[in-house]
């Protein structure tokens, strides 16, 4: 049904930038759901055709056959008011006041509908309307949320900051700068030594879990050679060019740092022993954020489908490739990816409400606090793990091994008395190594480490037997290269090969 037009007093009247009359209605006593449901039900009560609905308001056609006139009425719901305007969409030159009449009808009907529904009915109707809400990027009642990408105008565009591409080139530049400084300090360009990487802040089971927690982050800016750097920076630029324009600077840099930390922790947790570095964990985190955003309807379909396929292929290919090729830390990749997905869905909540700065900073700060708290707990738990104690003490074994092997290199140039003395000392070092391995065997370790310990103990016993044979040969002036010695040496070589493959 429709109400007869009656002259009523409009609450407020002004003109918008297009010169169109806009009326406002106070909604202070109504909840958000009440405002929306009453606004939509008023249109239905008047018999008008709804064009579309959203959580920002409704647009409808007023259909007035009496005057062969049609109008389009827009009801935009804001914080405490509703802005109402009506424009003619018919071929009639003059609307004869029909636009004003339509607004008056709507406002009169709205006032009557204020108390027409119970809270239960409001909730039920709201759920029905909510299914028809258009995505934010299609809602003309809201600001245009479509991302604005920079125009590529230079060969060096990936290093040039722009309005919506600022954090990405900064991170790229920082990674390149760190690599240049390392090379200038003597670190290898293509295959840097592990020791050098640890000195510069790589993630290492022993050093990181021994109080040097800052390596969880510093390793995200280090790379094992030029090729490693180039591949990671290419992946970073690709995701950054799109993602930063969509989620903004603060969310982007926060996601990079937080997912990088989580990736480093997952790497430490997954591997018995690791020395890792690279931005790939954090980059996979950004791809996780992107996948989360793309899986919703926040981004318009034309952009979403193409990019989603590209991002999905990149992630799957790299994870599968990393599973078959050694030296790639897939644990860090998966940790970064999954944490990025979780953070991405949290970001979507704020992206849907771009004007609510309090909500944005609440979720952003809460995400930081939660990740830091969980990371601190995980770090503390792993620091107390027997695995850390093992890798600290195993260094003692390697020092004993080094001392035991040293005299063999100079045996031929020493008198027999000195040779015998050195051999006795070496046998003592090997026996100390056996005792140390047995002590480490009482720790709670993985089966893989225990199996390695058994091989180390076997290695020490073979060395002891070998040195005893050499001691007898020197004492009795017999052949140092007897068949027994050759057999022991062959067995020792086989054990060393097994240790090297683990």
How would the blueprint of this fold be written?
Blueprint: E1 12-15, E2 21-26, H1 32-46, E3 49-54, E4 57-61, E5 71-77, E6 81-88, H2 98-113, H3 119-130, H4 167-184, H5 194-199, E7 203-204, H6 205-208, H7 215-218, H8 226-247, H9 249-270, E8 275-276, H10 280-294, H11 301-324, H12 330-351, H13 357-383, H14 386-405, H15 416-440, H16 447-476, H17 483-500
Helix pairs in contact: 1-2, 1-3, 4-8, 8-9, 8-10, 9-10, 9-12, 9-13, 10-11, 10-12, 12-13, 14-15, 15-16, 16-17
Sequence stretches where pLDDT stays below 50 over 5 or more residues: 1-19
Based on the structure given, which CATH architecture of the largest domain is correct?
A: Up-down Bundle
Approximate strand percentage: 5-15%
CATH class of the largest domain: Mainly Alpha
Number of strands: 8
Give a short account of the largest sheet.
Answer: 6 strands, antiparallel
- Give the overall shape: elongated
Number of helices: 17
Transmembrane segments: 165-190, 221-243, 250-269, 275-294, 306-324, 330-349, 361-379
Pfam family, one: Rhomboid
Protein name: Rhomboid family intramembrane serine protease
EC number: 3.4.21.-
């Amino acid at each position: 049904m429709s109400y007869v037009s009656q002259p009523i007093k409009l609450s407020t009247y002004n003109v918008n930038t297009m010169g169109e009359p806009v009326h406002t209605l106070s909604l202070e006593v109504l909840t958000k759901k009440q405002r929306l449901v009453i606004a939509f039900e008023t249109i239905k009560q008047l018999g008008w055709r709804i064009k579309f609905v959203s959580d920002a308001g409704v647009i409808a056609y007023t259909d007035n056959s009496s005057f062969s006139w049609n109008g389009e009425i827009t009801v935009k719901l804001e914080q405490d008011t509703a802005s109402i305007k009506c424009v003619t969409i018919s071929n009639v030159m003059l609307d004869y006041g029909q636009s004003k009449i339509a607004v008056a009808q709507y406002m009169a009907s709205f006032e009557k509908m204020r108390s027409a529904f119970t809270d239960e009915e409001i909730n039920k109707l709201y759920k029905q309307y909510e299914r028809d809400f258009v995505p934010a990027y299609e809602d003309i009642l809201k600001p245009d949320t479509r991302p604005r990408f920079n125009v590529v105008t230079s060969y060096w565009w990936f290093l040039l900051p722009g309005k919506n591409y600022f954090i990405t080139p900064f991170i790229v530049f920082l990674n390149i700068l760190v690599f240049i400084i390392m090379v200038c300090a003597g670190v290898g360009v293509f295959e840097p030594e592990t020791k050098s990487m640890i000195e510069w802040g790589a993630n290492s089971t022993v050093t990181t879990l021994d109080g040097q927690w800052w390596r969880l982050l510093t390793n995200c800016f280090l790379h094992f050679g030029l090729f490693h750097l180039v591949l990671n920076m290419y992946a970073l630029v690709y995701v950054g060019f799109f993602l930063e324009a969509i989620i903004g600077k603060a969310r982007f840099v926060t996601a990079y740092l937080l997912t990088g930390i989580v990736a480093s922790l997952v790497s430490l947790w997954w591997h018995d022993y690791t020395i890792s570095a690279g931005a790939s964990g954090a980059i996979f985190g950004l791809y996780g954020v992107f996948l989360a955003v793309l899986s919703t309807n926040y981004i318009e379909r034309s952009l979403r489908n193409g990019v989603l396929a590209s991002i999905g292929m990149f992630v799957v290919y790299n994870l599968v490739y990393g599973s078959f090729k050694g030296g790639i830390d897939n644990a860090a990749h998966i940790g970064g990816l999954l944490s990025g997905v979780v953070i991405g869905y949290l970001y979507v909540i704020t992206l849907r409400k771009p004007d609510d700065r309090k909500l944005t900073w609440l979720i952003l700060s809460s995400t930081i606090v939660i990740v830091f708290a969980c990371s601190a707990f995980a770090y503390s738990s792993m620091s107390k793990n027997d695995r850390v104690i093992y890798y600290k003490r195993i260094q003692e074994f390697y020092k004993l091994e080094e001392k035991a092997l040293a005299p063999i290199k100079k045996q031929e140039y020493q008198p027999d008395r000195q040779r015998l003395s050195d051999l006795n000392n070496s046998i003592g070092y090997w026996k100390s190594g056996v005792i140390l391995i047995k002590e480490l065997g009482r720790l709670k370790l993985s089966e893989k480490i225990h199996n390695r310990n058994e091989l180390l103990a076997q290695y020490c016993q073979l060395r002891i037997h070998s040195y005893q044979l050499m001691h007898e040969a020197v004492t009795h002036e017999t052949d140092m290269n007897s068949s027994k010695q050759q057999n022991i040496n062959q067995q020792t070589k086989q054990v060393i090969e097994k240790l090297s493959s683990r």
